[in-house]
Specification:
- With 120 residues, the chain is mainly beta.
- Helix content is 0%, strand content 49%.
- It has no helices and eleven strands.
Length: 120
């Protein structure tokens, strides 16, 4: 069992930055690929970025490439999402997720989410 707790959300102006953190419980954090998703009001949840167990591979949605950076610290059981050049369309609840599968085909665990609001 893995529990995920996100933090770092908030209100920021267009062009600003935020860093989200996701702390995982359990001793097997390094065996999971991690991802960030987001869900805006009235929209479906969408994949933002994923990172493999070692941090050696990352996969970004086109909408955030060049602006967002995912990283992980397996010693601290934490995955980060650095978000720069934020836009109003980035406003959403951001969720951290963990998967034991390759190719991000199925996500086993989810956090409760953290709100990110970008004002215009």
């Amino acid at each position: 069992q893995v529990q995920l707790v996100e933090s770092g959300g908030g209100l920021v102006q267009t062009g600003g930055s935020l860093r989200l953190s996701c702390v995982a419980s359990g001793r097997t954090f390094s065996s999971y690929a991690m991802g960030w998703f987001r869900q805006a009001p009235g929209k479906e949840r969408e994949f933002v970025v994923g990172i493999n167990w070692s941090g050696g591979r990352t996969d970004y949605a086109d909408s955030v490439k060049g602006r967002f950076t995912i990283s992980r610290d397996n010693a601290k059981n934490v995955v980060y999402l650095q978000m720069n050049s934020l836009k109003p369309e980035d406003t959403a609840v951001y969720y951290c997720a963990a998967t034991s599968t390759s190719g991000y085909s199925h996500w086993d665990y989810w956090g409760q989410g953290t709100q990110v609001t970008v004002s215009s």
